Amino acid sequence: MKLKFGKDGKFRILHMTDAQESVRVSPNTVKLIEASVKKVKPDLVIFTGDQIKNYGLGFSSKNAPKYAQGLIDSLFAPIDRLGVPFAITFGNHDVCKYVSKQQQIEMYAKYENFVRAQDYIHYDSGTYALPIYSSDGSEIVYAVYMIDSQGNNSTGGYEAPLPEQVEWYRQTRDELEKLSSKPVPAMVFQHIPVCEMYNIFKRVDKGTKGSIRAYRSHNKEYFLLDESKCREMGNFKEPASIPDENTGEFAAMKEKGDVRAMFFGHDHKNCFVGTYDGIDLGFTPSCGFNTYGDGKNRGSRQIVIDEKDLSYTTKPYTYSELCGSRVKRPVKDAILSWIPTSPSDILPKVSKLLGVLLGIGALIAAVVILITKYL
User: Fold this and answer.
1) CA dihedral of 263, 269, 275, 279, whole degrees rounded to 10
2) Rounded CA gap, 216 and 228, in Å?
3) CA–CA separation, 122 vs 130, rounded Å?
4) Residue 44 and residue 297: Cα distance in Å, rounded?
5) Which helix (H) or strand (E) holds 366?
6) Rounded to an integer, what distance in angstroms lies between the CA atom of residue 351 and that of residue 255?
7) Which CATH number fits domain 3-341: 3.40.50.2000, 3.40.50.1980, 3.60.21.10, 3.40.50.300?
8) pLDDT tens across 185-244, in order?
C-alpha cells in the first residue's frame, strides 16, 4: 500500500490510542472511532497501543484469541468499511499470555486496509517505518515511525524501547536519506512517552493549584505544563508515565533533526503538545470507554502535514464535540472518570472520598439528634 500526499498537498493522520477494550466492546468507543474518521477524513489512521485490555475477563484464559478477534473486529471493521488505511503498534496492555502480538497482527491482517509492517522497512510487527510519497508519487518526502515501546517491567514500572530498536531507527533514517538524497522529515508514534517529556513541564511547590504529583523517578515532585514550551495548552490531568530507564531513543531522534514530532498515548487523561530540543512531544487522550478516562473528553487527534513546507498542524477532538453529550452506561463512565490514575493519585482520592463520607455521616448524626430531641 503506497501512502502519499493528496492532490491538495495535504496528508491527514488520525491518531487514536488506548481503546483498551474488553470482551464486551463499549458502543461509545466504536461511536467515537467512526465519528473521528468521518470528521478528519484521514489518509491514515494510527492506533498507538492498548487496543486490548489484557487484564480484562477472558484474556487470562485460553479463549483469549477468540475474544481478541471479536474485539479487533468491533474496533476496526468500521474503519475498513470506510476505506481508510490504518496502522497499529502495541502498548503494555496488548501483551497477553494466550494471544501473542504476532497472532494479533494476523487478526488485523484480515482487513484489506491494514497497513502491515512486513510490507515496509521493519524491525518487528510493532516497530516499522512508513514512507509517505509526494502527491505525484515520485519521491519519498516524509516518514512515519511506529515504535513498540514494550510493556511492564518486573519492578512495577514500564520498559523502554530496546537499544536494538533505537539502532534500527538510525539505520532506517540513514537508508531513507540515501533513497531521497536528503534527510527525510518524520513523525514518531508510540505508546509509552519518552523520559524527556518532563522537560516540557515546570516543577512547582506542593499545593500549587492544578499541579500534578508524579511518582517513581519523579516521586513526590509536582508539575504544571510550561506555557513557554507548549504549542497546545490542553489537559494535563495525570503524571507522564515514563520508563524507568532511558535507552537513548529521544537522543537518537534529535541527532539529524529529521524527527519533527513524537505523539504518545498511555496516560489517558492527557492532551497537549510541547516542544523540547526542537522536537514536539504530544499526548492524545484515550478513546476507550471500558477503561479509566476523562469522561466525554476522551477523543482523538487530527494531524495535517503540508507537502509545500512539510510543516504540520494538529487539533484534538473530544467525544462531546463529535458525538454529543450522551453516553451509554453513564454511571459506569462516571466511576471510570473518577478512579485514581496513578499510585500517587490514590491517597488524595481516597482522602477526599472519606471526607465526603464523614461529612454525610455527620449530617445524618445531626438529623438523628434533632429528631430524638424534639420528637
Assistant:
1) -10
2) 26
3) 9
4) 23
5) helix 343-374
6) 46
7) 3.60.21.10
8) 999 999 999 999 999 999 999 999 999 999 999 999 999 999 999 999 999 999 999 999
Strand partners, 122: 128
The number of beta carbons lying within 10 Å of the beta carbon of residue 223 is 21
> Residue 283 carries which side chain, given as an amino acid letter?
F
CA distance 86 to 43: 9
Could you tell me the three cell numbers for 352? 477526599
pLDDT in tens, 94-132: 998 899 999 999 999 999 999 999 999 999 999 999 999
User: Is the CB of residue 51 less than 8 Å from the CB of residue 20?
Assistant: yes
Beta-carbon contacts of 109 under 8 Å, excluding residues fewer than 6 positions away, are 116
Helices (H) and strands (E) in the chain, counts: 8, 17
pTM, entire model: 0.91
**170 neighbors 129 (Cβ within 8 angstroms):** no
Cell of 70: 471479536
Q: Is 258 helix (H, G, I), strand (E, B) or coil?
A: coil
